[in-house]
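Continuing the series of single-chain predictions for the mutant panel. This is the parent chain; the variants come on the following pages.
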Amino acid sequence: MRSFAFAGLLVGLGVYALPQDGAGCVTVSTEVIVPTSTATYTTTDVLTVHATTADNLGTFTLVTRESSTKTLTTLTTTVTDCTATGIVYKEPHHTVYTTHNKKRALGLSPRQTTGCTTTQTYTTTYGATYTFVAAPGKTSTYTDYTDVSLATVTSTQYGGTAYAIATSTTTTRAVCGTTSTCTNTASSTVTQDARCAPSALTSAYNGFGLEYASNVPASGAFYATTTDDASQCCQLCAKANKCAASIFDPKTKNCTLEFPVDFDTGALNCGEGALVYYGAGPDIPLAPGAGLFVAQLCGNLEFGNAPPDDGT
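Parent structure:
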């Protein structure tokens, strides 16, 4: 009797067991393309003529635009006026970033199984096979120019608005000299914006480091300065009026704050701050964290890429 009761308990547990992920099998597919038709084209031989005169490309107009300037906002910086020299005692502190509560995402525990690979081949029928046949007795002429001529004129146009960020400076008086950290005092706490925490910053897209940034691609202005790290750069943007995003280059310590505007009214709009991307080349792709560090504050950033230099 006891054994039957235990078996019933096992059955009951099996009915309410949690679902599991499927087995880790991988299917490798190979496509074979079969053309549906054959197309035949007629070609002609090309006769190259080397010109002795320059190819006239016409007139190029160089346009210079004169625009009015609109100041979007004013950023204030502080400088220290040394009233005396001596030992400056600095209290130790630690930085705390404000956080938001997040619920743990639900998920299934993967079933521990041995991986397997299945290979399959399928056929796709489309397209055509091309055949080229030379036309008898026909040629075409191509003129090869070794020099070109181009006239240039200048033109000045008036209108439009250029946007700028103004700066102001405040002075604080303090004793300057050798810095010494106090060891007999309690440490103070510095609270910063959670979006500027090192773990909240973005340094990669599609698994590659960010290399280039196009400031306010729609319209607006940007402010350039230097900071010690990406979090400080982000914090400047968090404190500024309608700063959309921040961009920090760890190699140069350059910090850029982005201020996009509406194209019709010129008002700050917390829109797209910059286009951030990586490109192809012999030194690309960058590893994540080896390029720019960016943060999205009241606005957003657009990310893009070109294929990395890996044959794709």
